[in-house]
Write a structure and sequence with these properties.
about 75% helix; mainly alpha
């Protein structure tokens, strides 16, 4: 279905309608390329990648040597293969550096969070240490079971001595009164 044609007034004293871009509007996630770089760097460091790249090189060299110098797309000294490696290296190095930088940023954030957690733990431990010290000081003022028992024994012994003294005094009085 055709779009209706808008009437455009072509006058020199007024601005014309805005032209739409030929390219579609692109909205991108700022971390999308970073995630791509990390995935790329992660895959390049695997044994599968190294094995695959080695197999590709072996097949490339054998294929070009088997075809011969006149029909091979890249006969010795394998200039096209060197071009592949150069392009790969020119893209791989910045991507690996980007992935490394992103990892360092994550490590910094994690380290800051660990420092904050450690500082909070330290503050909590200092608070608990002060509380325990104050409880110990209060417990030093409180009488313990052993202290109370020793005081009661001392009082019982004192009462026994007084009772014995009173009995002696009473016997002496009765002896005086009897004489």
């Amino acid at each position: 279905m055709a779009r209706p044609v808008k009437h455009v007034d072509i006058r020199l004293d007024t601005p014309g309608p805005r032209r739409k871009s030929l390219l579609p509007k692109r909205t991108s996630d700022p971390d999308r390329f970073g995630r791509f770089a990390e995935g790329f760097a992660r895959r390049m460091g695997t044994a599968n990648f190294i094995f695959g790249m080695t197999m590709f090189i072996i097949v490339w060299v054998i294929l070009n040597l088997a075809i011969g110098p006149k029909n091979a797309p890249d006969y010795y000294p394998f200039i096209l293969l060197n071009l592949f490696f150069s392009v790969q290296a020119s893209y791989a190095s910045p991507l690996i550096l980007l992935a490394t930088n992103r990892q360092e940023a994550r490590d910094r954030i994690s380290l800051d969070a660990d420092r904050q957690t450690a500082a909070q733990f330290r503050a909590d431990m200092e608070f608990l240490s002060r509380e325990i010290a104050s409880l110990r000081m209060r417990m030093g003022d409180m009488a313990t079971r052993d202290f109370i028992r020793s005081e009661l024994r001392g009082l019982v012994d004192e009462l026994d001595r007084r009772e014995a003294q009173l009995l002696l005094d009473l016997e002496e009085r009765t002896d005086r009164n009897d004489h």
